[in-house]
């Protein structure tokens, strides 16, 4: 697939009430009709919240010992299919998921809660949701849009931030996404809601919590090994987890494994942008009990 290059940026379009690009809507019928199995695990996130990190942790928890050759031969995006994706460079997410040989299947989505295929809820699948504070999430998304040819041009930082506050970026508003899954938890108990900041603070503790949600009795040694293997520097070096094989990204502009920090927003937000953002944030988040940390 790697000989195929994307020549132009997609446009941002309106789809089912959110901003989208065609790469995530081209296969919509198959996405909507996706047949989940009861033991599927859905990894749901707003883009840039730590999806790859948690995906790799889950992959190692389930298959680190039973299928070690998968870890060294298949990139993470092939092991954990991106459900709604229909990129020209790899098979569509639904197709990859349908052909996964493993049980459970680990499946990634960025869809907001209202667009998640209903089969996942009907089958009472386990859902692991990862959320990241709005400011660091914005900064990470900005760099990602710059280097990823399947994303619309982000413009400069101030343009991007303005659009982000407006929800005019792929997968819609951050605010609705994180709150949507937070609310869903009240009606649907099979969601483990976790935070990027907690993972940075204490990865081992978060792996522990994941294990108890998933009912896994992984040994302490194994958990320690997974903590080491999923460290930022290790994942950045690992060609199976750093996205280096995907030709739609230009690492000369920005690497996929960029910084992996909490608080990098301080290097991007001006004082004025920060004040405006905080004001707007208060409005957008006034009806939720959901709380984030912007530093650890
Ligand atoms: P930064 O751009 O802030 O560095 P996603 O996988 O959802 O696209 O999220 C990508 C973000 O998670 C990037 O953030 C990336 O560096 C960070 N990340 C990925 N693996 C990580 C790890 N093991 N530890 C810390 N951060 C990680």
Automatic annotation (TrEMBL):
| Listed InterPro entries | P-loop_NTPase, Sulfotransferase_dom
Keyword Transport applies: no
Pfam families in UniProt? Sulfotransfer_1 (PF00685)
Provide a GO biological process annotation: xenobiotic metabolic process
> At the top level of its lineage, which domain of life is listed?
Eukaryota
Q: Which residues form the Sulfotransferase domain?
A: 38-288
UniProt GO cellular component terms: cytoplasm
Q: Which residues form the signal peptide?
A: none
Enumerate the subcellular locations listed in this protein's record, separating them with semicolons.
Cytoplasm
Q: Which family does it belong to?
A: Belongs to the sulfotransferase 1 family.
Q: What's the name of the protein?
A: Sulfotransferase
Tell me which species this is from. Electrophorus electricus
